[in-house]
Write a structure and sequence with these properties.
Involved in DNA repair and RecF pathway recombination. This is DNA repair protein RecO. One of its GO terms (biological process) is double-strand break repair. The protein is α+β, with helices and mostly antiparallel strands. The protein is built from six helices and eight strands. 35% of the residues lie in helices and 23% in strands. Helix 1 runs antiparallel to helix 6.
Length: 231
Amino acid sequence: MDGFQRGFVLHTRPYSESSLLLDIFSEHEGRVTLLAKGARRPRSAIRGALQPFTPLLLKWGGRGELRTLRSAEATGLALPLSGNALYSGFYLNELVMRVLEPHTPYPALFHDYVTALTQLARYSNPEPALRCFELALLEALGYGVDFLHCAGSGDPINDNMTYLYREQQGFVASIMKSQHRQFTGADLRALATRHFETVEQLRAAKRFTRMALKPYLGPKPLKSRELFRRK
C-alpha cells in the first residue's frame, strides 16, 4: 500500500478535547510522534485500533517533529499480553521511546521488536525475549562488544574462565573477584548467540544489559520497572 508502513503505538496522551498524540515505532522511519485528530471522539473509526501491542498499517503527512496521522488500520488483533508479559511489553516500549532518536530508521530492530512481543505473548518466562531485544537494541545503537574474545589478549574465550567487563574495552580474563562485572566464558558465549540455557546465564545477561544501557537511559528511572516492583 503506497505510503503506508507497519507500526505499533508505544504511548498515547490527550491533545486538545478530541485528539491524541501518538508515539509510534514504525518499520521504515523509526520513532515518530503523530497527531491523531479527532481520535478521542466516541465515534472515531480509529480510536479502538490506536492501542499498544496492536499491529497497524499507518500513513501520515506533514513535516517537522510532529506529523499528522492520515490513516490507521489494524492488521490483526492486539497481542494477548497480561501480567508479567504486559509489564515487559511496557518496558520494551519505554526503552524504544527513551533510547532511539526520532525519525531514524531501524528496520532490523523493528523486526526484533515484533519478535520480542510475539515471544512475550507465547511463553510464560519473559526474560529471554527481554534480553534478546536489549542486545539487539545495543547492536542497533552501535554498541559493539566482542563476547567471544578476550579484550586483553585477543584469545578466544574459555567457557571455564572468568572475565571482567570493562566499559569501552570489553571482557578481560581475570581472577579478581567482582560479582557485578564478572562473567564466565559460558555466560559470554550465551550473550554472543542470544541463547540462554540456564537461569544463571539469564541473570548474567541482565547484569550486562543493565550496565550497557545505563549511559543511554540516563539517571531518570524507568516507569515500567516500577510496575514490577509494585507487584
